[in-house]
Design goal:
11 helices; Heme Oxygenase, Chain A; mainly alpha
């Protein structure tokens, strides 16, 4: 979600697109933002999230969404752990970002002790987790999906938490999935993350690998868009449910 209230689950800050034949001397993070701008714009338009944030849906909409996110992190976080000593992954393998415990706390808060029964994947979630599993042995692939999920949560996710709390009349501490207690300044953290991304790309990725990473990021945005499309198809169920 962007700072203006749009939602993707991916990093949101963008710049003017640079012509392909003009070299970019500002670093790989800037290139990644620019060359995925169109995919990002498409992914951010979600009827599901718009209605969820308005507070007009039953709580089952939130728990269904969290159940999908839980399954993504169930694949991604072990992949990061398995490669945390690899030079391409190590700069990003920060336990301060870990989301599974927070998502599980939110599911327990809203569903009680039987929350695991809600972990039923939508078709798009299965496609997304299959892709995460497929790249688990590719360090650059793990990095780019880490970037899409966690940097998004550190930016627009902070707005998501506030709007959800306001729309549903909840305390923000009931929404741990977007809370990073160990990150004092999300903006400074994001800036540092981008600096690590620039350094890793410069030191470890040749031109072909950088191109491959950009394409994987575009795929990640599409998978995220498909997940929100699946959730949006369920809107009638949640609109009609008693509050």
């Amino acid at each position: 979600m962007g700072d203006d209230g749009t939602v993707t689950g991916a990093e949101t800050e963008q710049s003017q697109v640079r012509p392909e034949n003009q070299p970019d001397e500002r670093g790989f993070a800037a290139r990644l933002r620019e060359q995925t701008a169109d995919a990002h714009t498409s992914a951010e338009r979600s009827p599901f999230m718009a209605e969820l944030l308005e507070g007009s849906l039953d709580v089952a909409a939130l728990t269904t969404y969290l159940a999908q996110v839980h399954q993504l992190y169930t694949v991604l976080e072990p992949a990061v752990d398995a490669l945390r000593d690899h030079p391409e992954v190590a700069p990003f393998a920060d336990d301060a970002l870990r989301r599974l415990p927070a998502v599980e706390a939110d599911l327990h808060e809203h569903l009680g002790g039987r929350w695991r029964e809600a972990l039923v994947p939508l078709p798009a979630t299965t496609r997304y987790t299959d892709r995460l599993a497929a790249v688990a042995g590719w360090p650059a692939g793990v990095v780019v999906h880490h970037y899409l999920r966690y940097v998004g949560d550190l930016s627009g996710g902070q707005v998501v938490r506030r709007l959800l709390a306001r729309g549903h009349g909840w305390e923000e501490d009931r929404l741990r999935s977007w809370t990073f207690d160990a990150v004092a300044s999300p903006k400074r953290y994001r800036d540092g993350y981008r600096a690590h991304l620039d350094a890793v790309a410069h030191e470890h990725w040749d031109a072909a690998e950088r191109d491959r990473v950009v394409e994987e990021a575009r795929l990640g945005y599409r998978l995220n868009e498909e997940l929100f499309a699946d959730l949006s198809e369920l809107l009638p169920r949640w609109r009609s449910a008693p509050r």
